[in-house]
Design brief:
Two copies of one chain form a homodimer. With 483 residues, the first copy, chain A, is α+β, with helices and mostly antiparallel strands. Chain A has 14 helices and 23 strands.
Chain lengths: 483, 483
């Protein structure tokens, strides 16, 4: 008892990080496994987070003149086979549609019928099918740049799955841009990486390292892959978003050609870039604590939960009205507020709020109501931040408090990341670091990458090169364990 | 020549309505057929319309306490087989996933590999998979009502497809609500029908008849299906949205049980309700004219397009800045404005704007700039509405103009609908109406429905009972051709 009884999540992070992760998701009611192999159900609280993330990021890309569109779910086999590296990368994990109806067999059992002449795969990503459209839509240099994006589901048949982090079906956005020159495509891949960095750092409070993937870690068919890498609390990396400079690989396999200003016919240069519901897993493993989830205020489903504390002779109707009025005042300032009027007990409501990671919890009882006051507690600081003030005081400063929570969460995660990157001057030193079970990444000279010794250490400790940080001008490689 | 040369769309509605429809979509650049059988590509201009529709309707259902979530794309065969009517309704048009990877055969050709023990179908609708979750989530009367919705893609393998109206894959929302009593479920099905009516009439300017489907036209597995039926300009009906009272059919097949307040265990009552990208087809066939699309202002991708009219010695930079400034002033009032700075000629820009159906076209040339004026033309009224006024005048009244366009479009469509419903006292009269090739619906006494003579007339002219209008208390049936 004692220490353990004081955490809402069992086990704690230290006891069993993977199991703690599952329990946080369950306690916050964000998602669960489905009866379909490897596919998850995103529950309303998890989906509300995703909606907020979508809204913010969608606004960011629209400012960059990206247009949303929608392309077919199914991809003809001959499309996906067009780019050799691409098919190598995705063939092993495709859901394949082979029939178009069901029919009862002699035993009355439903079986597939109506075999298709050519099977389709459910999109694992859409470079090939969007490339086919671009080949028709891009005719002249005047049609460029063309920037398209779709928010959709994709499917990769994963054998070992984990909620949000790795599921057979997941939700994402995939951007596909097309340019007249190699320089523009490279600049765009870097711009989208920077847009991802801004999004995850400023809104999700996830500090990241921006870098380029080593060639063995590139997207299948890319000339270069740029990544943002976050560090989880167990020291493992999470690839949080990637943007690919595809050069002319896909424009050649898809036939995306245009007439240049000088009249010549040229192949275009394309990029693609994506972030997914996997980011939610990254937020949980970065921000969660032993009491559950902590939602970054800027994308939290609710930024504030007001709990009316009903005791023996409290006038519930009056107290609910008091809470509703406070909620209304905050909502008028654009704050997302929920009033918890469920039949749960007050402790259950409070713990529910903590486990869901609502940034600010507000409690109002008869005493507060009579005094025109509220009591509020920050999720990031816990009970020590408990404070009672007037309603107007809180309404006036709630946005400032939320901003401060956001900053605090980012700074905590940033300090963690910065403190767990270790420069190592040799592979022996790197080996020693991981042999000791240290938490974090090693940074080594990029000349050491790819040697037999490098590969041996990576194999021994299940390490992968995470990226060559942009800040080091490609001279260094970060190495670590990863999700 | 002559008359024909004056319409932007060839053929006209009168000449060939189905082909006119395809040409309107093409001219407005809204969608196109894809290389995947029966699947469409929704292009940016069409998708922007869908996004606006989603945003409005999503706001409406959130006010009704509906929570968005996300369920798997794939449905196990044994799930879909649970409800007998349901499987009868959907088995003939399911995309079936049977394998989970690709592999090169001896000829180097990619073929499906990794056969699944149990195949999956791509969801044609999600009653069964959501029902499975509800069975776990609903335990007590306190968990009810539960109202869930998802925005997603679904697939029904259609043999004859048409952009937006009937495609193998389409986008939609599907709501799934669950209640403790039959009365609540019935009231909910009617509430969602009414919400659809409000959405399509007030935002899409589509007048509809609200009614109940006759039993042969019900959703497979429903006790009652409520519908909103719109009338296209060729007099055919379009089912624009449906809500189903599923009674206990799906709660029994999925095992959605709860402990009632009296301690007894009971099966819940469910509803489901959906609208889709098909509505876009309905908007085109209701509002389009021989010059192309007409977008209802409340959901139009752009409500206003400003065309800078550049002539010989016009200072283009200055004129663009003038146009941008006007756009900015309107945007500050929440108006969606585009400034057309493309390299197209002025006539091409003007006709492009007309074909895309932008509600208000604003033209500014050197003369307007010098006078601080603008010239504007309404899409619904055409050149007769051309007017020149000061910038501040237009900025002040643009919202009123847009509202007036919205009302005018609705009223036009409403007059069309109201004038083309004909009460017939016998099936002989109904037969005569359709034999003459008249445009519209016949309304007959519901006692005539389902008789041999009724079925014979329906077969002869490809008619279907559209609905029993709520306004007639179920005593009448509307009959017509339909999309």
């Amino acid at each position: 008892m004692g220490k353990k009884a004081r955490t809402a999540i069992t086990p704690t992070r230290e006891e069993n990080f993977p199991e703690w992760y599952q329990q946080v998701i369950k306690s916050a009611d964000m998602a669960e496994n489905s009866p379909v192999r490897g596919c998850m159900i995103i529950k309303p609280y998890g989906y509300a987070l995703w909606e907020n993330m979508q809204q913010v990021f969608d606004g960011m890309i629209k400012k960059l003149d990206v247009k949303n569109a929608y392309f077919p779910l199914l991809i003809p086999l001959n499309f996906i086979a067009k780019e050799a590296d691409h098919i190598d990368g995705f063939a092993k994990e495709c859901a394949v549609v082979t029939h178009h109806r069901l029919e009862a067999n002699d035993d009355g059992k439903l079986v597939p019928a109506g075999e298709l002449e050519e099977p389709y795969v459910i999109r694992p990503t859409s470079e090939t099918i969007i490339g086919d459209s671009m080949a028709r839509w891009v005719q002249s240099y005047r049609d460029l740049p063309m920037k398209l994006n779709q928010w959709c589901n994709v499917m990769r048949w994963e054998m070992r799955t984990r909620l949000f982090l790795r599921t057979s079906e997941f939700l994402w956005q995939e951007g596909h841009n097309c340019f007249a020159t190699a320089e523009e495509a490279r600049a765009d891949a870097l711009l989208m990486q920077e847009t991802y960095r801004e999004f995850v750092e400023d809104y999700l409070a996830l500090p990241v390292i921006t870098g380029e993937k080593t060639e063995d870690e590139r997207f299948p068919g890319a000339d270069a892959t740029f990544t943002i890498e976050a560090m989880m609390q167990d020291g493992k990396a999470l690839q949080a978003g990637t943007s690919h400079d595809l050069g002319q690989n896909f424009s050649k396999s898809s036939g995306i050609k245009f007439q240049a200003q000088d009249g010549s016919e040229q192949h275009a240069y394309t990029t693609s870039w994506g972030i997914s519901t996997r980011l939610i897993g990254g937020m949980i493993m970065t921000h969660g604590d032993d009491d559950g989830m902590r939602m970054p205020p800027r994308v939290a489903p609710y930024q504030v939960t007001i709990i009316p504390v009903v005791k023996g002779d409290t006038d519930e109707t009056k107290l609910f009205a008091y809470a509703d009025d406070i909620a209304m005042q905050m909502r008028a300032n654009g704050v997302r507020v929920e009033v918890d009027k469920t039949a749960e007990s007050t402790p259950n409501k409070m713990w529910g709020c903590i486990k869901k990671g609502v940034p600010l919890r507000v409690e109002v009882g008869a005493r507060e109501m009579d005094a025109g006051e509220v009591t509020h507690v920050r999720r990031d600081l816990g009970r020590d931040s408990k404070e009672t003030c007037s309603v107007s005081d809180l309404v006036g400063k709630v946005q400032t408090i939320l901003d401060d929570i956001q900053d605090n969460m980012y700074n905590q995660a940033k300090a963690f990341l910065d403190n767990r990157i270790f420069e190592k001057s040799s592979l022996a030193e790197m080996r020693e670091f991981f042999a000791k079970g240290e938490v974090g990444y090693c940074k080594i000279d990029s000349a050491l990458w790819g040697t037999d010794e490098f590969n041996a250490v990576c194999d021994e400790f299940s390490l992968t090169p995470r990226c060559m940080p942009l800040a080091d001008g490609g001279q260094k490689v970060l190495v670590g364990k990863a999700y």
